[in-house]
Amino acid sequence: xxxxxxxxxxxxxxxxxxxxxxxxxxxxxxxxxxxxxxxxxxxxxxxxxxxxxxxxxxxxxxxxxxxxxxxxxxxxxxxxxxxxxxxxxxxxxxxxxxxxxxxxxxxxxxxxxxxxxxxxxxxxxxxxxxxxxxxxxxxxxxxxxxxxxxxxxxxxxxxxxxxxxxxxxxxxxxxxxxxxxxxxxxxxxxxxxxxxxxxxxxxxxxxxxxxxxxxxxxxxxxxxxxxxxxxxxxxxxxxxxxxxxxxxxxxxxxxxxxxxxxxxxxxxxxxxxxxxxxxxxxxxxxxxxxxxxxxxxxxxxxxxxxxxxxxxxxxxxxxxxxxxxxxxxxxxxxxxxxxxxxxxxxxxxxxxxxxxxxxxxxxxxxxxxxxxxxxxxxxxxxxxxxxxxxxxxxxxxxxxxxxxxxxxxxxxxxxxxxxxxxxxxxxxxxxxxxxxxxxxxxxxxxxxxxxxxxxxxxxxxxxxxxxxxxxxxxxxxxxxxxxxxxxxxxxxxxxxxxxxxxxx
Length: 504
Prior knowledge:
- InterPro entries: SusD-like_N (IPR033985), SusD_RagB_dom (IPR012944), TPR-like_helical_dom_sf (IPR011990).
- By secondary structure, this protein is mainly alpha-helical.
- Helices cover 46% and strands 9% of the residues.
- It is built from 20 helices and eight strands.
- The strands form four sheets. It has a two-stranded antiparallel ribbon.
- Helix 3 (53-72) packs antiparallel against helix 6 and helix 7 (138-163) packs antiparallel against helix 9 (188-205).
- The chain is globular, with a radius of gyration of 23 Å.
């Protein structure tokens, strides 16, 4: 644990240095948004920066810093907010209701793809310049290149799932170039083709199936988890069928041979003082005094809003208040849980107040809050700096179960592992019994809800299982074009070649 902590401190020192190095680049990139909106113009040219191994490794770290800006809020907004798990909180929602009410349009389209393209630009620079630079070992160079390929693949996969068609850029924009700066949207099949190509490139560059570069940077196990995710998506939604799902299963099974395991206590997975534990495969790193809060500061409850007559058990779970309850776990979500599931009290808290007619009975709904990413309390202030998990072992096990079921194989073994940890001594009565493919799919999707809620997965799960327009109340009877997010009017205004998604 101490070695991990020292490693994180060293990484964070490097991150701070990079943040200072790239500040001029960020400022110039911001000034160029009037012209670009796909890739920023880099002022760090080949003649002034890309000279040695340290330059490349520093830029790789900077790429992760810039990616973290999307992890703060956007990954959650894209991957969870439109599902059935959220509703109104105690505070003004500040427009967040547009997600769970599914009323997004081009004027209120949610976060755009600008930051993702900035990270893609970082990856493109690394892939352009790193091959010609001497490293003290070929392995280190390959790891840097592999991380750039993996990050580009992940960003384009998000873009493909959220917006569908999108411009494909594989070259950095280092000066004003209208050909590369203003591009129309490529078909989503071309976007996914690049994603798959980058995944294969990354896997070929990692020398072994380890986490030698940490669990908050891309590694071979993490890229195999991404590959399984991608091929499940294309197998189910893009015509890949049995072939792609078989590829997904093979990739996911390879993750099991890495140094991964389910933690005995579900709550321990997410804690600030337990980062990079064996369940984590890939996470976005947060550190006190180095990064700001993540999205959970908008789903907690402010200290002065915790009611004095609230349920003592709920108040104990909540602890010190913090943040603002701008949206909250919905009633539809809360009503699906049983009290004997140990994940419940590690995921959210239901705050009821005392019934005025029945002293000691707390049955008056007041609020709910997510406590999975609750951070820690420092001098009376709650800081939301738990790492944002992109992939973990339980997710992989459930994707394996999903792939097996789609291939007419028995998913019992993986479902059993998840439920045994979830219910502990209460496991009898919660055994998974394999049934029809449809019944198994329903059980796997439900298990993913309990296991992975508020981890930015639910919206994509609903789409992949074909259940968004059945299980999200605000989408029942709505048109199919709402599977995709709208393109923001700002994005269209900045690039006249970008066309709006149909239906918006």
